[in-house]
């Protein structure tokens, strides 16, 4: 039996705000006498909003009322109302996520739009969302290669690297198409880091001066070089490190990037040359796209066509795959139900040794910080390599070592495994943590990095837990 549900994605970015409505068809694909397994069998984007400039009251405050009016207007245009929707996501990204009232806007929109995945996307999360929207993860898996997605927006460039479908690293630089703004042929705004970058290379620019295309293109070439440096295609220096938004954190040097996709507002100007007025958007986005396209270091890598460009970060809501855990699990009922837990996925090859397993957890935890504090996170992996008693004990030690930040936080330690070892591993973790840390350890659940999961209250006499795996839906 099939069921149709509708979902929404709302993305409030540095430059643009947009909505997407999707139709999802779910079906129980299990047999009559087995545990139900509901999965997505069809998905379709049924409405795309127009793209709005994100309304701001000032440089530090979002115009929440104007954003709500945009959302309300688009509901009417799509002939939708909140009660029609089963799921969705509201994401504030880029420079907009740094505005002082970002969380207030999220709360207001969440109430308006429904009980959705809601997050102020930090630079790392935004990198992942954009890369998945562009299809970089799938392309890297299909081509068995390493692909970086460069999501070049108005205020930032978010980069995520995927190797054979698994996330290998993220970073974010203050490089974007609206870091220099143009009004009536004159420069009206210059971001201080870009002004310093230009000055370091002997280029002087000032607010109020005439917009000189040749001079601004040279600055865009410098910005493109910084993107190449972030991928280790050119040598980095201290100037380069100063352009990162996330405390100077660069991508890991390995694996080496072999291919590229581009998303964000500037991406269309990279994939195709636009010869018309370079300042028609009131910024340097067209020139930046041209500079990136012509950069020799970036051009030496294989270019793949992104599934989405400017709409890559619009989340269409969760492709809901409702499931139940295995029956060999451990949980603390006090913390259930629990919703919208982001998944930290350990890649299969990182499970080959306990050292790489531990490091994979430790290195990814910063992705799940908001305003410097760790939030809920579920640590997920296959768990196929270790099933003996001693191996389980060693695996528990590796998890504890890698997840110290979680253990020291206010949240329970949540572990999601594909192999049927949840109860024995959960017991081992509980004993090693002296029964002082709540542990939820569930098995027979497949997830991917970037997913969110809901864990419901126990069913079947407390033997299993219902799981909703919300793989973020992007346009297809």
Give a short synopsis of this structure.
This protein has helices at 64-77, 102-113, 123-134, 136-142, 192-200, 213-230, 238-241, 267-271, 285-294, 296-299, 354-364, 389-402, 404-407, 422-432; strands spanning 2-12, 16-28, 38-48, 52-53, 56-58, 61-62, 87-92, 117-120, 146-152, 157-163, 166-173, 180-183, 186-190, 259-263, 302-303, 318-324, 338-345, 369-370, 373-374, 378-381, 413-417, 439-442, 452-455, 466-472. It has 476 residues and is of the alpha/beta class. The strands form six sheets. Strands 16-24-23-17-20-21-22 form a seven-stranded mixed sheet, with helices on one face.
General description of the model:
The structure is a single chain. This protein is of the alpha/beta class. It folds into three domains: 2-121, Nucleotidyltransferase, domain 5 (2-Layer Sandwich); 125-303, Nucleotidyltransferase, domain 5 (2-Layer Sandwich); 325-472, no CATH class. Helix content is 28%, strand content 28%. It contains 14 helices and 24 strands. The strands form six sheets. A seven-stranded mixed β-sheet has the order 16-24-23-17-20-21-22, covered by helices on one side. Strand 21 (413-417), helix 14 and strand 22 form a beta-alpha-beta unit. Helix 1 (64-77) runs parallel beside helix 2 (102-113), helix 6 (213-230) packs across helix 9 (285-294) and helix 11 packs parallel to helix 12 (389-402). The longest helix has 18 residues, at 213-230.
């Amino acid at each position: 039996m099939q069921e149709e549900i509708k979902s929404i994605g709302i993305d409030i970015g540095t430059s643009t705000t947009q909505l997407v409505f999707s139709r999802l068809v779910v079906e129980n694909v299990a047999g009559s006498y087995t545990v139900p397994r509901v999965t997505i069998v069809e998905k379709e984007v049924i409405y795309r909003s127009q793209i709005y400039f994100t309304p701001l009251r000032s440089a530090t405050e979002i115009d929440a009322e104007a954003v709500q009016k945009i959302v309300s207007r688009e509901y009417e245009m799509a002939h939708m109302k909140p009660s029609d929707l089963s799921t969705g996501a509201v994401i504030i990204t880029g420079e907009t996520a740094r505005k002082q009232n970002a969380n207030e806007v999220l709360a207001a929109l969440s109430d308006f739009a429904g009980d959705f995945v809601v997050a102020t996307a930090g630079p790392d999360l935004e990198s992942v969302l954009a890369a998945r929207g562009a299809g970089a993860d799938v392309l890297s898996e299909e081509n068995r290669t390493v692909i970086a997605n460069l999501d070049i927006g108005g205020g930032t460039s978010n980069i995520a690297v995927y190797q054979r479908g698994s996330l290998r690293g993220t970073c974010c630089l203050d490089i974007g198409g609206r870091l220099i703004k143009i009004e009536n042929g004159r420069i009206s705004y210059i971001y201080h880091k870009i002004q310093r970058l230009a000055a370091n290379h002997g280029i002087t620019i000032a607010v109020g001066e005439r917009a000189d295309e040749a001079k601004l293109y040279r600055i865009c070439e410098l910005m493109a070089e910084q993107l190449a440096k972030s991928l280790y295609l050119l040598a980095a220096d201290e100037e380069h490190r100063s352009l990162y938004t996330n405390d100077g954190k660069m991508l890991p040097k390995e694996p080496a990037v072999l291919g590229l996709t581009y998303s964000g507002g500037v991406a269309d100007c990279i994939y195709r040359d636009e010869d018309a007025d370079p300042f028609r958007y009131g910024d340097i986005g067209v020139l930046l796209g041209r500079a990136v396209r012509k950069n020799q270091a970036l051009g030496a890598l294989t270019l793949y066509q992104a599934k989405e460009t400017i709409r890559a970060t619009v989340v269409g809501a969760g492709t809901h795959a409702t499931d139940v855990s295995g029956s060999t699990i451990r949980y603390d009922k006090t913390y259930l139900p629990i919703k919208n837990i982001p998944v930290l996925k350990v890649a299969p090859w990182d499970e080959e040794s306990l050292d790489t397993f531990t490091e994979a957890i430790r290195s990814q935890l910063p992705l799940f910080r908001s305003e410097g504090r760790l939030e809920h996170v579920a640590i997920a992996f296959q768990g196929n390599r270790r099933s003996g008693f001693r191996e389980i004990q060693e695996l528990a030690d590796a998890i504890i070592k890698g997840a110290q930040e979680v253990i020291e936080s206010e949240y329970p330690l949540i572990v999601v495994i594909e192999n049927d070892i949840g109860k024995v591993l959960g017991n081992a973790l509980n004993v090693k943590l002296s029964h002082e840390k709540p542990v939820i350890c569930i098995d027979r659940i497949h997830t991917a990095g970037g997913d969110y999961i809901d864990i419901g209250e126990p069913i079947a006499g407390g033997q299993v837990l219902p799981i909703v795996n919300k793989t973020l839906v992007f346009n297809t």
